[in-house]
Amino acid sequence: MNWSYGYYTELNYTHGYYRQMAPALLRMACLCGGIEAQLRDQPVYLELGFGQGLSVNIHAAANGGQFWGTDFNPGQAAYARELAEASGVDLHLFDDSFEEFAARTDLPDFDIIALHGIWSWVSEANRKTILDLIRRKLRVSGLVYVSYNCLPGWAPAIPVRQLMTLYGDYGGGQMAGPEGTIEGAIKFSADVLKNGSVYFRENPSAAHQLERLSKQSANYIGHEYLGADWHLVHVSDMARSLEEAKLSFVGPARLLDRIDGMHLTEDGRKFLGGIGHPLLRETVRDYLVNQRFRCDVFVKGAIPLAGAKQREAWRAQPFVLTVCHEDIPKTIAGALGEVELPEKIYDPVIDVLSEHCYRPKRIDELMASPKLAGMKVNIVIEVLMVLTGAGFVSPAQTPSEKTIESCHALNRHICGQALTSTDLSYLASPITGGGIFIPHICQLFILAMDRGRTSAAELATFVWDFLDGVGERLLREGTRVESREENIKEFSRLANRFLTRTRPMLQALKVV
Ligand SMILES: C[S@@+](CC[C@H](N)C(=O)[O-])C[C@H]1O[C@@H](n2cnc3c(N)ncnc32)[C@H](O)[C@@H]1O
């Protein structure tokens, strides 16, 4: 066995950012789950298996505290360290395996231990190591964030993965290279389907799964389907495992997973309402929505937060828009289809949040606006919970000069990278303590402004010169638009929109 313990290392992992891992959103998960979040303002945070390290770097730049992380892939650890160097934050990033990391003698006690995309994909021995580390090194009141593939949603795909892994082991041959092996594994599985497989006929969702695979990236497929380990659990099993480390279940970190009205039928809601035990309820809920992936928060020593105390905690929390109010859609995706965000209650809250140049606002300030006249506080709380869960709003904090500087330094580096790759799509905000989605073209506009361009025409020319230099063009409905004039016209329109809509919000978020 080499250093990878059977973990898939042929292709590096994608450059993802996961906002629900930000300290502020973990606090929100506790608040929504009726648990007191006793996190210190300057938490000691550990991310296990940080991948390319974008999340840990953004969180370290945008928050006070101490940030630690390990990922045994040296290429990824090197990339993550490069980001850390750019922000100037003193991160403690290692290329240790979990086993090596757990054996270190210089570890502090942690307030937060977060692992995204790890639990289901590592060996039982590694899961034991992680549990033991949590047991020894998480402070009382500390939080654990863990995401994992779950049942029942993945159940029909288990045999698909088996075919893919077996092909990788016995059918592909090393000559094909990682991409070739993945392509071959998909084709091989599709051939099984085509040759009269009764399994696929009787399990149409497995056939859909296979169909979807051809549209997913090789990096994702390699990590999901070709590793040695794939551990699927129900939420109740996950909670039992973490009980061994003295942790209690708080609830989902993705706040939309709490909004039953968005995902369940009326009968489903009534049925669930009749189940008393939180873990039985949460497990049954996964059957109602056919859950495949969960992101959960656990706490070491739960102190319930309810009634007036919970409302007070909501009132104390400022919120800020993270998407321009004109760009917020009128519907969002629920388990049963698109769900409308009723204009009558959502628009006034969004409007008031955008007032005074997007300055963060507490619930009392929102409710003092005539636009919210007659709206009850629990409705405003639910609207904020949905908007936060959907990623349109975030809890806000008062940043130090140091976090503002670190975010700006990291953001400058990321925008500079936009000249050579489109891998990174988030910039750090010291106001939210997390990442803000910034499309590639907006990163180029920010870079252009850093280099002294100011007008929409100048930004458009900057983008055109860059694209022309690398032989690229604007794509319209998948087709290259060749003429300079057409390109500049479209980039000017986008630059104008960036300057008038997006930039004021990014300034309020102190991203720029
Ligand atoms: C699916 S990726 C998730 C990466 C990152 N958390 C994200 O979501 O973008 C899993 C990561 O865990 C790392 N990893 C797997 N097993 C490990 C181990 N035993 N010790 C340290 N890192 C490990 C891999 O290198 C990989 O980067």
From TrEMBL:
Q: Which domain of life is it from?
A: Bacteria
The keyword Transferase belongs to this UniProt entry's keyword annotation: yes
Q: Which key words tag this protein in UniProt?
A: Methyltransferase, Transferase
Q: Domain Methyltransferase regulatory, which positions? A: 218-300
Task: Quote the InterPro entries the UniProt record gives.
Answer: Methyltransf_25, MeTrfase_reg_dom_prd, SAM-dependent_MTases_sf
Q: Name one GO molecular function term.
A: methyltransferase activity
Methyltransferase domain: from which residue to which, for each copy?
46-142
Coiled coil located at which positions? none
GO terms, biological process: methylation
Its name, as the record gives it, is Methyltransferase regulatory domain-containing protein
Q: Which species does the entry assign this protein to?
A: Mesorhizobium neociceri
